[in-house]
Amino acid sequence: MNNKKIALVTGGSQGIGLATVELFAKNGYGVVIADIKQEQAENVAKRLKSDGYDAFAVGCDVSKEEDVKSMMECIMKVFGRLDVAVNNAGIHQTPHINIIDMPVEQYRSLTDINLMGIWSCMKHEIPLMLKSNDCAIVNVSSVGGVVGTAGESVYTATKHGILGLTKATALEYAKEGVRINAVCPGAIYTPMGDTLLSSAPGLEEALQNMIPAGRLGQAEEIAEAIYWLASPQASYVVGHSLIVDGGMTV
Ligand code: NAP
């Protein structure tokens, strides 16, 4: 078995996932960049490898359990271990839409990707982690996991659901060397964040005025929180939801 620790990041080819991949790579982890956009993930892996890091890309739609299963088989074949998993892939409810106007297909894709995706990833990550000791999972929720936003009902439900999954699963494996926590980002500049901002004129300024820190966040600021939650420095943190939002929900 390779001695290098391995970190998997879903939705790792851009935004918060990409910042997280880069931070783990710079800290000596072998990184697995998983994304529905396989080519973009492969380009990230190529760039990291040319900079001397250990990186591997895999195409995976987290809403398909078969994809998730074969991704784990692939990780075991290539690296023989999994130490950290950042379950970050998700989609937003943009543009905002009230519940009475939402087609069932949109409800299904939000829940399949944001909630079932996390379930499916944890279901197949944990058995690999039980073979090692001292592993960690960080699930990416949102401030939408702790407060509601009009026009984001189903996104809000999935992000609340992630915290429930995190807490209960954390209890199931706390004694078995797998620590499970969640991070709840506020409004962050990423491709997803930018799409939301451009869908609603004036939103960026309104957020800047409303957020106590006076600005939106950067993907790297969320990556730092994820990295800490997954690190031995957070060894006594279990089932926690870490809000990183510039004070937005305070
Ligand atoms: P992003 O820029 O859209 O990046 C997410 C990546 O995940 C994209 O490459 C996306 O591909 C991919 N993805 C989508 N569905 C997938 C699937 N079924 N399987 C695998 N990969 C998939 O998003 P982000 O802003 O970095 O957000 C990352 C996470 O943080 C999400 O869970 C989001 O809900 C959460 N979050 C973000 C913010 C924010 O302000 N940005 C705030 C709170 C929480 P596509 O581009 O094809 O969708």
Q: Can you put this structure into words, describing what you see?
A:
The chain has 250 residues and is of the alpha/beta class. It has a single domain, classed as Rossmann fold (3-Layer(aba) Sandwich). The chain has eight helices and nine strands. β4, α4 and β5 form a beta-alpha-beta unit. The longest helix has 26 residues. The chain is globular, with a radius of gyration of 17 Å. 45% of the residues are buried. The model has no long low-confidence stretch (mean pLDDT 97).
What is the second-level CATH architecture? 3-Layer(aba) Sandwich
- In which order are the strands of the major sheet placed? 3-2-1-4-5-6-9
Which secondary-structure class do the elements indicate?
Answer: alpha/beta
Which cofactor or ligand species appear? NADP nicotinamide-adenine-dinucleotide phosphate
Distance separating the two termini: 45 Å
Low-confidence stretches: none
Number of helices: 8
Integer count of domains: 1
**Secondary structure: number of strands:** 9
Strand content: 15-25%
The proportion of residues forming helix, as a percent range, comes to 40-55%
CATH topology: Rossmann fold
